[in-house]
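Question: Send over one sample?
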Amino acid sequence: QVQLVESGGGLVQPGGSLRLSCAASGFSFSRYDMSWYRQAPGKQRELVAVITSSRFTTYADSVKGRFTISRDNVKNTVYLQMNSLKSWDTAVYYCKLRTPGNPPRDYWGQGTQVTVSS
């Protein structure tokens, strides 16, 4: 079955960097688009970045120029490099797989906490 396991979160000072990883299994990873989302306390989950199977990337305006999404199809892992972190980046970060279908189906990891604070 599909499994998504995030790691790499933690406490970092403003201006610092973190790299999140999402290890995937149970499906043909290279064939699917992958996404990172985040959810801050009291807020709705929001899309952060997407990488397609052909490695085309898109980003939320709030993270453009600071975050980079990438993938390793050998390791079946998607990454989120986060630089110049700000307090409002504090959230639980999730990776997501959406499989096509009628209706499409979403799979989520358990999330990893990122806290940006001095």
